[in-house]
Specification:
With 355 residues, this protein is α/β, with parallel strands linked by helices. It contains 11 helices and 15 strands. Among the domains are: 135 residues, Rossmann fold (3-Layer(aba) Sandwich); 101 residues, Rossmann fold (3-Layer(aba) Sandwich). It is globular, with a radius of gyration of 21 Å.
């Protein structure tokens, strides 16, 4: 703890310089010298103030499930880590290198919706409308701090164990903007809450975040599903108390996931990499070596759905060596019976949208 505080103190001058730049940009937007482009269809942004870890993808998937049976929707992401450039409509037979891991995940789970990637959101939205004129809403992934587009609804996520109220600007902390930027949000979701959350904890968090009168505050958590084999989802895995898990992941934080697994299995061995890491041949070789060294017959390799998109680049190796690599699916749930209110808020925004 002392070492972490010392590092933050040493990095504070750099955070101040970064903050000056952020403030200058914010000033230009407030004065109208820079303006976000508004479009004549509903645009919902899901993002966070910090760098990764808040659960944007599962919340985008929640919105997809909520809306896809009623209106034509499209998702738009930057496609972080992809090796292609420019605007691209994602297809299920693409790879993570072509489309990015999260957009490919969206497309494979929801093949009926339009999934797109582009570095420029202002360029991509007209392209979506030209390709799919019947599109009734666009979901922007990780766009809270990208203000070139002004969304009709701004959803801000903040992680329960790492809320923006206790964080600092980069590089001393993980914030990409000053804490006060939360004021732009229409909805704030405290994500990745414990499965059990008391009313006292709810009230304490509400007081800490201090939502403005126009803002709604919700609390969400993850409901993990049954793991499936990444090369053939028909094959499912049952967790048992005797099972040992080799967890390979390249996500921002694994604390929440590991806490869940500790209640399901005997033992966990973790191989962790930086967020969005593309697994190399060496990495999967180490995966096999670590798996082989586990001295039990009741063992399995587990990963997240996002990581599975990148691990599938090595599908031939996984198949050849018969590695039991399973992906753990997840869905967002809301505490305190808030799901109905959240759903209605989204639906009313769409129904009341005016050009």
């Amino acid at each position: 703890m002392i070492q972490k505080q010392l590092v933050q103190i040493l990095l504070a001058p750099f955070s101040l310089l970064y903050g000056i730049g952020v403030s200058a940009r914010d000033f230009l937007y407030k004065q109208g010298l820079l303006k976000g482009v508004e479009f004549n269809l509903p645009v919902i942004s899901v993002g966070n103030l910090s760098v990764g870890g808040a659960g944007k993808s599962p919340h985008i998937e929640y919105l997809i499930r909520l809306l896809k049976d009623y209106i034509d929707i499209a998702t738009l992401s930057r496609g972080y880590g992809r090796k292609t450039k420019g605007y691209l409509e994602v297809h299920a037979d693409m790879t993570a290198e072509q489309a990015g891991d999260e957009p490919l995940q969206f497309k494979r789970k929801f093949p009926e919706i339009m999934v797109t990637v582009c570095e420029s959101r202002t360029f991509a939205i007209p392209k979506i409308m030209m390709a799919r004129p019947d599109t009734k809403a666009i979901l922007l992934d990780d766009a809270f701090q990208h203000r070139s587009v002004k969304p009709g609804m701004n959803i801000l996520l903040t992680e329960y164990s790492h809320p923006f109220t206790r964080d600092y600007l980069l590089p001393a902390g993980r914030l990409r903007e000053w804490r006060s930027a939360y004021e732009r949000a229409d909805i704030i979701i405290v994500s990745k809450c414990p499965p059990q959350l008391s009313e006292e904890e709810r009230q304490a968090f509400t007081a800490e975040i201090a939502p403005l009168p126009h803002q709604k505050l919700y609390f969400s958590y993850y409901d993990y599903g049954q793991p499936y084999f990444i090369l053939n989802p028909r094959y499912r895995l049952e967790f048992t108390p005797e099972l040992e898990v080799l967890l390979i992941s390249a996500i921002a934080r694994t604390d929440y996931l590991q806490a869940y697994l500790e209640e399901q299995v005997e033992r966990i061995k973790a191989m962790e990499y930086e967020d969005h890491h593309y697994f190399t041949k060496y990495d999967v070789g180490q995966l096999k070596a670590n798996f082989d060294r586990m001295e039990t017959n009741r063992k399995v390799i587990l990963t997240t759905e996002k990581d599975a998109m990148r691990l599938q680049l090595h599908h031939q190796y996984i198949k050849e060596h018969q590695l039991p690599v399973f992906a753990l699916p997840v869905q967002v749930r809301f505490h305190f019976g808030q799901a109905d209110d959240f759903n209605e808020t989204i639906q009313q925004y769409l129904l009341n949208f005016q050009v």
